[in-house]
From TrEMBL, chain A:
It comes from the Eukaryota. This is Glutamate decarboxylase. SUPFAM superfamilies: PLP-dependent transferases. It comes from Fraxinus pennsylvanica. Gene3D superfamilies: 3.90.1150.160, 4.10.280.50, Type I PLP-dependent aspartate aminotransferase-like (Major domain). GO terms for cellular component: cytosol. GO terms for molecular function: calmodulin binding; glutamate decarboxylase activity; pyridoxal phosphate binding. NCBIfam families: Glu-decarb-GAD. Belongs to the group II decarboxylase family. It catalyses: L-glutamate + H(+) = 4-aminobutanoate + CO2.
Automatic annotation (TrEMBL), chain B:
The modification N6-(pyridoxal phosphate)lysine is found at K277. This is Glutamate decarboxylase. It catalyses: L-glutamate + H(+) = 4-aminobutanoate + CO2. Its cofactor is pyridoxal 5'-phosphate. The lineage of its organism: Eukaryota, Viridiplantae, Streptophyta, Embryophyta, Tracheophyta. Keywords: Calmodulin-binding, Decarboxylase, Lyase, Pyridoxal phosphate. The keyword Magnesium does not apply. Belongs to the group II decarboxylase family. It comes from the Eukaryota. Catalyzes the production of GABA. The calmodulin-binding is calcium-dependent and it is proposed that this may, directly or indirectly, form a calcium regulated control of GABA biosynthesis. Pfam families: Pyridoxal_deC (PF00282). It comes from Fraxinus pennsylvanica.
């Protein structure tokens, strides 16, 4: 406020100076230009009293004092006069640590927030994430209409609750849950797969505890067996709910959990084995069927009944449509619960996940809170309470709009685009394709030769074209491999995929022309530590070309790998990423 | 012939929506349908079914915001496809979240320097916030007990019986015993003295509520702090306080800036607040703020890389939309301290109008206090003929959703109606509600007291003709029981939000 009136004072002073200098008309002009619009606006708001004063302003312009009083009051509060970017709100920087004292007009607030958000990446070009970034305008409309509905007010919004229950039923049937045709399935909508996994894990933990208590055995050291390729939320679940996480290590060329090794790690304290349908790293499906067989055998031998959870966050809406023959779901007897992200290939914006249990017995009753839902009982099991219900409604929209037919053709389309991208990448001759043909539609590829530049550089260069393609290193035991990952979503059309291919080719060409800055740097670092290493790196190229088998070759080759590792270490220092932080 | 048949079979768009085959068949409810349907039809079907939901704006049961400025709606829709966890890709969104945390921490008088970043996190709602805060307390207590070489397997938490259901949830899911301070007639918040008495060495924290869900009253955090400081000095423990300011966190700083309930009190280590209540954002945002870094055990934090800088995260959820965070930032800078103050004063004013209107009818006892969250909780003076549940039911016919519920154990024979005054509940609407309540009372007076009669008949039958005149309180209790059976068989009394 203070600043504004100071500005206005300046204006007024200028007006006064104009009076002293020149004619009546001149003043009239300057006042009109600066203020008169505001005066009329103000008058509508405040009423006739000021309107009278405004007339005074126009008629007896010589009375500069009158003008002064009138104009200060008016312009002080009327900010709409200024164009948005000339207003004081856009001129000063916003407080970042405290709530500002005064209010500002909504237009200015909108513009400021909107403009700052322009610097965010474009979600549509973000190929790092599985999360849906496009929906039909009709669905956008439904979302906006229901954005002020609270999901937990089941009494007030019975239809929304009903839609949620229908979604649960539909997904359970899709996953072959052993429920009758009109029987309701056991499951719940969540904010995402993280919440879903925590709920599923909690159910396993509680069930295991109850069993151990009944047997009179200790129940304070539960553990869970997963592959090292799991998403970070499993680690979170383990840490927050005090369960030990036993990770099956990966090895080079095999980036998913080995069922045999996993079953070896199972002991009597194992609450469940978590298999991943669609590994985040390579999109590969783990062999749940084999795991089920091996575990059944082990259970028979030992008398335990270790169950399986399938984390189908990304693959849950792929496998039923593209690989209906693949047995990974409730068709396998040990699979007791499955989670799936509605906001990945369920084709809904971020904020919806689902967890389905095989049947009632797999969800301990003590975890369920009952609330009254229009006279009938509505059991709930969530970690969150109030939240928007628009994602649930959007999920239902997608189910009935697309049907099995629509989902199938979208997934096939994604697969087709993935194939195109994979083939083109292979054609460049520069990449090793790490992802598999069967799995989630994504393409993960590593550079064959990263001595000149690395995948991290490619990722950075692609940003200039607008693409967000993440590069990351594999989890422990395969960590010297770094890959680029492109997720093919519904909205990445064929022409966009082609465009991406040509942009990657451009980037490769550019990088070829650049001096290999990082490897030189890394080589320098190496040189300090080990004088020979630098030489070796240069010699290797020659040796490789000539294909001569000599005594040194074995040694040399090894140091290439070493150099490579150093480069990665160097890069990791620059951009130390959680490998499993991808989603 | 052939041509026209072929085209009308495949071209669904020529039918008007309500003549198409999609609205003629009922939709499958248990399986995903085999075939696709046009998007217009899908939109219309869902939209029409949702008409049967209550109108959120007339839902006076909930604190949760149901109206925002169109400019903010635009921002929300523009960012609905942004994933909050992709901090690398959307650095500005992350930055806005951090700014919100700082602003709220300053509002709660966190002991921070001017340029110092506060410790806090945005959540989906107060439930997640409370679980995170509780988890931090539990881990801190465990670490302390382990260091002392004492057993750490029986943690407990002390709260009033008026807490929201999520505390119960936290206790059950994270294996902490919930010790509830009982309520009594006419005193519906936690008694600080009794709470402090219940504290033992296994107590991970005492949770105080700023704005009880039942009647909006603020608990006396200052007295609790003083008593607990004394007890801590005597025993050598250092039991901390958490303030659940889900509904009151954006009320107290603006309407009662002198009230000491926040980080000004030394034992208050964390505070949660719902952005989607008086933070004035749509459902899906909450905040939890810690006093300082030491109050949040490092082992609970996951670090992710955020544009080269390290971004610590502590959440139970992962992928979620970021539009609510952006909306919260919009509200904070748009309204400023001044705007929030005006809105809260306006809510308080409307609450007073409603209260005066209800008192004027002479039929209600006002249970809520003037100082507190702007809500009016009231019960019928004489509910021997008609109960609050009937009033609630009748109001539905006018479109109003006004919940009636019974108080928690030890005060459960009291039933109240609760009207939450939100930003968008204008003076005109408040006056209209009073008029409709008067109409309802008038209608009810003309109706026979059906439940009482039924009850009396049942009584007669059971006692085999021995009709004894029951005391008023007995009748009242029986009616309540009967209604509870009718309406709220398993209703969580504190399931309101």
């Amino acid at each position: 406020m203070a600043k504004s009136s100071a500005d206005d004072d300046d204006e007024l002073r200028r007006a006064c100076e104009a009076k002293i200098e020149g004619t009546k008309d001149k003043i009239l002009m300057s006042i009109r230009v600066a203020k008169s619009y505001g005066i009329y606006r103000k008058n509508w708001q405040i009423g006739s009293q000021l309107y009278g004063q405004a007339r005074v302003l126009h008629s007896s312009i010589q009375e500069i004092v009158t003008i002064m009083v009138v104009t200060t009051t008016i312009s002080d509060s009327d900010e709409r006069l200024h164009c948005t970017f000339a207003s004081r709100y856009a001129r000063t920087s916003l407080p970042r640590f405290k709530i500002p004292e005064g209010s500002m007009p909504k237009e200015a607030a909108y513009q400021i927030v909107n403009d700052e958000l322009m610097l965010d990446g474009n979600p549509r070009l973000n190929l790092a994430s599985f999360v849906t970034t496009w929906m039909e305008p009709e669905c956008d409309k439904l979302i906006m209409d229901s954005i002020n509905k609270n999901y937990v007010d089941m009494d007030e919004y019975p239809v929304t609750t009903e839609l949620q229950n229908r979604c649960v039923n539909m997904i359970a049937h899709l996953f072959h849950a052993p429920v009758g045709d009109d029987e309701t399935a056991i499951g719940v909508g969540t904010v995402g797969s993280s919440e879903a996994i925590m709920l599923a894990g909690l159910a396993f933990k509680r069930k295991w505890q109850a069993k151990r208590k009944a047997q009179g055995k200790p129940y304070d050291k539960p553990n869970i067996v997963t592959g090292a390729n799991v998403q970070v939320c499993w680690e979170k679940f383990a840490r927050y709910f005090e369960v030990e996480l036993k990770e099956v290590k990966l090895k080079e060329g095999y980036y998913i959990m080995d069922p045999a090794e996993a079953v070896d790690m199972v002991d009597e304290n194992t609450i469940c084995v978590a298999a991943i349908l669609g590994s985040t790293l390579t999109g590969e499906f783990e062999d749940v069927k084999l795991l089920n067989e091996l575990l059944t055998e082990k259970n028979n031998k030992t008398g335990w009944d270790t169950p399986i959870h399938v984390d189908a966050a990304s693959g849950g809406f792929i496998a039923p449509f593209l690989f209906p023959e693949l047995e990974w779901d409730f068709r396998l007897p040990l699979v007791k619960s499955i989670n799936v992200s509605g906001h990945k290939y369920g084709l809904v914006y971020a904020g919806v996940g689902w967890v389905i249990w095989r049947n009632k017995d797999d969800l301990p009753e003590e975890l369920v809170f009952h609330i009254n839902y229009l006279g009938s009982d509505q059991p709930t099991f969530t970690l969150n309470f109030s939240k928007g219900s628009c994602q649930i409604i959007a999920q239902y929209y997608q189910f009935i709009r697309l049907g099995l037919e629509g989902y199938k053709s979208i997934m096939e389309n994604c697969m087709e685009n993935a194939r195109l991208l994979r083939e083109e990448m292979a054609k460049t001759g520069r990449f090793v394709i790490v992802s598999k043909d069967i799995g989630v539609p994504l393409v993960a590829f590593a550079l064959k030769d990263s001595s000149r530049f690395t995948v991290f550089q490619i990722s950075e260069s692609l940003r200039r074209f607008g693409w967000i393609v993440p590069a990351y290193t594999m989890p422990p035991d395969a960590e010297h491999i770094a890959v680029l990952r492109v997720v093919i979503r519904e909205d990445l059309s064929h022409s966009l995929a082609e465009r991406l291919v040509s942009d990657i080719q451009k980037v490769l060409k550019e990088l070829d022309e650049l001096p290999p800055r990082v490897s030189t740097k890394a080589a320098h670092v190496t040189a300090v530590n080990d004088e020979e290493s630098n030489k070796d790196a240069h010699v290797t190229a020659v040796t490789d070309e000539t294909h001569k088998v000599n005594a040194d070759r074995h040694h040399l080759k090894k140091s290439t790998v070493e150099t490579q590792k150093e480069i990665f270490n160097y890069w990791r220092r620059i951009s130390d990423k959680k490998t499993s932080g991808v989603c | 012939m052939v041509l026209s048949k072929a085209s009308s079979q495949s071209d669904d768009s020529i039918h008007s929506t309500f003549a198409s085959r999609y609205v003629r068949d009922s939709l499958p409810r248990f399986k995903v349908p085999e075939n696709s349907i046009p998007k217009e039809a899908a939109y219309q079907i869902i939209n029409d079914e949702l008409m049967l939901d209550g109108n959120p704006r007339l839902n006076l049961a909930s604190f949760v915001t149901t109206w925002m400025e169109p400019e903010c709606d635009k921002l929300i829709m523009a960012s609905i496809n942004k994933n909050y966890v992709d901090m690398d890709e959307y650095p500005v969104t992350t930055e806005l979240q951090n700014r919100c945390v700082n602003m709220i921490a300053h509002l709660f008088n966190a002991p921070l320097g001017d340029g110092e970043a506060a410790v806090g996190v945005g959540t989906v709602g107060s439930s997640e916030a409370i679980m995170l805060a509780g988890l931090a307390f539990k881990r801190k207590w465990q670490n302390k007990m382990k260091a002392l070489g004492k057993p750490c397997d029986k943690p407990n938490i002390v709260t009033g019986a008026n807490v929201q259901v999520c505390w119960e949830k936290f206790a059950r899911y994270f294996e902490v015993e919930l010790k509830e301070v009982k309520l009594r007639d006419g005193y519906y918040v936690m008694d600080p003295e009794k709470a402090v008495e219940m504290v033992d060495e296994n107590t991970i924290c005492v949770a105080a509520i700023l704005g009880s869900t039942l009647n909006g009253e603020f608990e006396d955090v200052k007295t609790l702090n003083d008593l607990l400081v004394k007890k801590n000095q005597e025993t050598g423990w250092d039991t901390p306080i958490h303030v659940d300011a889900a509904s009151g966190g954006f009320i107290a700083p603006f309407l009662y800036p002198e009230l000491e309930w926040d980080f000004r009190l030394p034992l208050v280590k964390s505070i949660n607040v719902s952005g989607h209540k008086y933070g004035l954002v749509y459902a899906g945002i909450g905040w939890v703020i810690w006093r300082n870094k030491e109050d949040l055990p490092e082992e609970l934090i996951f670090h992710i890389n955020y544009l080269g800088a390290d971004q610590p995260t502590f959440t139970l959820n992962f992928s979620k939309g970021s539009s609510q965070v952006i909306a919260q930032y919009y509200q904070l800078i748009r309204l400023g301290y001044e705007g929030y103050k005006n809105i809260m004063e306006n809510c308080q004013g409307n609450a007073m109008v409603l209260k005066a209107g209800l008192e004027k009818t002479g039929r209600f006892n006002i249970v809520s206090k003037d100082n507190g969250v702007p809500l009016v909780a009231f019960s019928l003076k004489d509910n021997s003929h008609h109960t609050e549940f009937e009033v609630s039911d009748m109001l539905r016919r006018f479109g109003w959703i006004v919940p009636a519920y019974t108080m928690p154990p030890d005060a459960q024979h009291v039933t109240v109606l609760r009207v939450v005054i939100r930003e968008d509940f204008s003076r005109t609407l408040a006056e209209r509600l009073v008029m409709d309540i008067q109409k309802v009372l008038h209608d009810l007076d003309t109706l026979p007291a059906r439940v009482t009669e039924k009850m009396a008949k049942l009584e007669e039958h059971a006692r085999n003709g021995v009709v004894v005149k029951k005391s008023a309180i007995e009748v009242q209790r029986e009616i309540t029981t009967a209604w509870m059976k009718f309406v709220a068989d398993k209703k969580k009394t504190n399931g309101v939000c």
